[in-house]
Specification:
Chains A, B, C, D: InterPro entries: SurE, SurE-like_Pase/nucleotidase, SurE-like_sf. Four copies of one chain form a homotetramer. By secondary structure, the first copy, chain A, is of the alpha/beta class. Chain A is built from six helices and eleven strands. Chain A has a single domain, classed as Survival protein SurE-like phosphatase/nucleotidase (Stationary-phase Survival Protein Sure Homolog, Chain: A, 3-Layer(aba) Sandwich), CATH 3.40.1210. The first copy, chain A, has helices at residues 15-24, 68-79, 105-115, 131-147, 213-218, 237-247; strands at residues 3-7, 29-35, 54-56, 61-64, 86-93, 119-126, 155-161, 171-173, 186-189, 195-198, 222-226. In chain A, strand 1 (3-7), helix 1 and strand 2 form a beta-alpha-beta unit.
Chain lengths: 248, 248, 248, 248
Amino acid sequence: MRRLLLSNDDGVHAPGLRALYEALLPYGRLRVVAPDRDRSGASNSLTLDRPLALTDRSNGFYSVDGTPADCVYLGVNGVWEERPDLVISGINHGGNLGDDVLYSGTVAAAMEGRNLGMSAIAMSLVGRRYFETAGRVAASLVGAAESLSLPPRSLLNVNVPDRPWSEIRGFKVTRLGYRGPASKPLQVQDPRGQDRYWIAPVSRNADDGPDTDFAAIEAGFVSITPLQTDLTRHAALHDVQGWLDALT
Amino acid sequence: MRRLLLSNDDGVHAPGLRALYEALLPYGRLRVVAPDRDRSGASNSLTLDRPLALTDRSNGFYSVDGTPADCVYLGVNGVWEERPDLVISGINHGGNLGDDVLYSGTVAAAMEGRNLGMSAIAMSLVGRRYFETAGRVAASLVGAAESLSLPPRSLLNVNVPDRPWSEIRGFKVTRLGYRGPASKPLQVQDPRGQDRYWIAPVSRNADDGPDTDFAAIEAGFVSITPLQTDLTRHAALHDVQGWLDALT
Amino acid sequence: MRRLLLSNDDGVHAPGLRALYEALLPYGRLRVVAPDRDRSGASNSLTLDRPLALTDRSNGFYSVDGTPADCVYLGVNGVWEERPDLVISGINHGGNLGDDVLYSGTVAAAMEGRNLGMSAIAMSLVGRRYFETAGRVAASLVGAAESLSLPPRSLLNVNVPDRPWSEIRGFKVTRLGYRGPASKPLQVQDPRGQDRYWIAPVSRNADDGPDTDFAAIEAGFVSITPLQTDLTRHAALHDVQGWLDALT
Amino acid sequence: MRRLLLSNDDGVHAPGLRALYEALLPYGRLRVVAPDRDRSGASNSLTLDRPLALTDRSNGFYSVDGTPADCVYLGVNGVWEERPDLVISGINHGGNLGDDVLYSGTVAAAMEGRNLGMSAIAMSLVGRRYFETAGRVAASLVGAAESLSLPPRSLLNVNVPDRPWSEIRGFKVTRLGYRGPASKPLQVQDPRGQDRYWIAPVSRNADDGPDTDFAAIEAGFVSITPLQTDLTRHAALHDVQGWLDALT
């Protein structure tokens, strides 16, 4: 039976993680290693300045006083004698669409699994209600990953519309859209009179064209985006070389 | 005169930031917005669950009780009436090579600048000694970015060997190498007898081929890697579609 | 029916809090406001540099992304239309004896209740096993506080031996002992070669005389110590005045 | 020459700490061990769940990635071969009056020194302007502590009016006043629509009678309050015993 490592960024007590666990129970031996509290927005942070505590919460659930990436690292290297076959992260409370993936701890947990040599899936529900729908999506993908052959070291970013399973219109392979830059911060005063600045939400999407994850979700489809972790902009290597030649 | 926004992840008091500031003084109007303490490894984290304090430390230096990405967001949206022309992050104390860029706060600060619509440069010294060398590299790139035309919304990851300027062999355009997965964690006991786990360093590089940043640094060259922030693995869209068709 | 506010420092998911809740259910209307994660050792810290999130976890349990003192402040000022009659903190996983009370978040939660004008009880189990015993102690004290008259704004620090209820030898009113100074730190190296220092545990008690809380626990009694929050050393006012007169 | 250990809670870069250092230079051999960032309000927190990094910033200044109490513990046990003779904490940016002392990191640093067996002084400026005045007060107390005999393991909480030295009316030995309970929290909404709660400042003092620290400062005097760290409410031992006898 396959070994499935589950994690998330909403913390070990999050309902989305519980829903993922229950949906995947029939599909392998499960271990859960998740942050001891909400670490949304942790991105790929790894904790290097202190050692981590790994707490056994029984029933195969472990918590770590660290980030989602810390959890996957310890889940792969510390909890089992053997490495997991697949890492599944989520179900995130809220979507991870477009440039969200750069900031998301859910996606980071999957990326860490992929960096450590496994295929990985990041699962997000674009809302907070129909976790069961997202659980069924996760089960169908994980089941298929077993019977079909997912290319090795695949990294899939999956977003699920927040609606009943019967209202899901299908699955779409998408590219990431782009939310665009956030608005100006919201300036407030604390009760002692000091200025503070809240980072503002993005007002409207800069790119949500028909082949994007935004468009798929909007139309009621599950969005599946293959991700890479190589940030080299290969197409620009030549241009930068030209620019550098002129410089020197 | 151009407006240059400087940030880093080692904190507002770091010598590398001071060296960058001094090297760039002749090249524009400078503003520094940096974390109030060491935030190395913060990756792209943005602080969304609390408002941020922006402290004016005089002489154009501001500190923020947040992450490198927070600093750039506030630097772009809060400190100036006009947007900066260029974001420069660093000089990091230590290299940001290969898959380091996924975890680095220095690179994240530059990425945030790029996401907000500007060109950006991440500067790292592969060591902790010759900040002056890295300062000269920064000055030559920023000077060139003015006279030549850096493509809009460029994002450059620059690493500098830790040696005197006279021993720098030149500049190379590179792709990112790959450190490979970290080793097993170092298990220790705290003084109260509880197990703890340190994330281990990477033992040896998995990909440091001749065109990588690793190889350039090893040979004594400044390494310049153009980065992208679109994580879509476009080449895999077709494969994943095939896999999905078989699934459904 | 009385309104009982419960909190702790081990976090909203801690078994000791659950045991306290169940033991006190018959004694009043309960509200639980506790940290979202383990905040042991937080002492009296209040969070003043950011606003707090209060999350309703259903069944009268709320969590706060802050310290134990934050929780009691919000529990008194935000959760109910009326103020609670009594604040009970715990059941702490481990004892709070002697000078522990200066560092303990459990005691701090009770102190905050007392500072806000209520009587308060800090409950700790000197171990991690017989929470049920400590629950029965809490129930008997809270029940008595109703029928008898606990002096207004009392603050009691209660420690319970980690043994079955049948083996508890009785209740003792005690003064705080004194653990004495901690030993030298344990010096370790992190995996990157940097020195780090763990604060060491205390080797042996400096004052555990017969009337102390240490002695009561050692002998199998529940220890009850009345605490004050006025730190003025009234007995020294005269001496310091003499010293000051000589100075000037 | 005496060994003086300096710390604070505003962080190693704070102007108040610098002013204290300069004022005390003639009075002994100085070592500074202070938090790497602002840790105001840390109270007596000690860091037990991770090892601490102690960074030598040259010139006798060290920083610690921990709390004020952590700093004093490491300053006493790690930086010198011999123990310091006196611990001085501050100069805090703002007063520590009345029940502030329960929450203050400045006072906690002094308390930690006293718990480790030394006399200790907590210095606070009731404002942010005349640090030099507070420096002169510190110098006169430390100078006197040498020539006269401060009782062993004394703990003094010193507050200085924010005015020029020439306008200081003298020194007063005081007891702590009492600010009283904080007002209701300030409820705000974050930019994503979620409720948040700021802890409110105290509206007016509940006890600022003529012999209190509040009154001394108001009248332009330096306030000196001897503190204790034994929280036992000795006067209540008898009453609680009576209450307990009725209970059982």
